[in-house]
Amino acid sequence: MGRIVAFLCFALSLSSCFKEPDFALIPVIDFDSINSQIRLDQFAGLTKDSVVVSVHFEDGDGDLGYNEAQKEQAQLSDDFNYLIKPFRKKNGVFTEFEPLIPLSGYFPSLKIDEKPGPIEGMLSYTMEFYHAFSPKFDTLKFEIQLKDSSGNLSNVTESEEIVLNRISAL
Questions:
Q1: What domain of life does the native source organism fall in (predicted)?
Q2: Which structural domain, as residue segments, surrounds residue 128?
Q3: 27 within domain boundaries
Q4: In angstroms, rounded to a whole number, what is the distance separating the alpha carbons of residues 65 and 127?
Q5: Which of 49, 71, 148, 165 could covalently link to 66 via disulfide, CB atoms 3.0 to 4.6 Å apart?
Q6: Which of 38, 23, 49, 34 is nearest to 110 (CA)?
Q7: What are the pLDDT digits (tens) for 35-56?
Q8: What's the distance, CA 45 to chain centroid?
Q9: CB-hemisphere CA count at 13 Å for 104?
Q10: 94-141 pLDDT tens trace
């Protein structure tokens, strides 16, 4: 019994040594990675590139993401919280383009308890590009920005470039 009490006292003393991070209330993001996989769409029977972009985030009050009610409201006005600007490389120069379907979207609340407090982590977001609607060897990059549920916009981070539609069939 004495060992358990001693262990608990030791554990509590260690936990008091860790200071809660002091992040800004406005989210801060940094590009981490981008990758793609060629897949077959089972419904349409078409090949596509499934692109995953990952960013590291920090937020002081932890209000990143929408709960279900916030998402329903945001969908009425396309008030996305994961903002993507795509750029296509042509003749060595990247130019922003407007995709047929918006790439921006929604991500759920990142705090399970929804209590205010700092959070940090990695957020991965998937986009799909059908080969039938993309040029061969299409080189893209993306600007990414997050919006918290208070409406604060993070800084903008830029992905590395990625080449899509490298094959015409599986």
A1: Bacteria
A2: 22-164
A3: yes
A4: 18
A5: 71
A6: 23
A7: 999 998 888 888 999 999 999 9
A8: 28
A9: 17
A10: 999 999 889 999 999 998 887 889 999 999 999 999 888 888 999 999
Give the CATH number of the domain where residue 41 resides: 2.60.40.10
Per the structure block, which two tokens stand in for 107? 């991500």
Number of residues in the chain: 170
pTM for the model stands at 0.83
| 170 domain residue, yes or no | no
Does residue 53 belong to any structural domain of this protein?
A: yes
Separation of CA 90 from chain center: 26
What dihedral do alpha carbons 104, 67, 30, 17 form, nearest 10°? Answer: 180
User: Which amino acid, one-letter code, is at 139?
Assistant: T
Q: How many domains does the chain have?
A: 1
- AA identity, residue 107: F
Euclidean distance between CA atoms 170 and 147, whole angstroms: 37
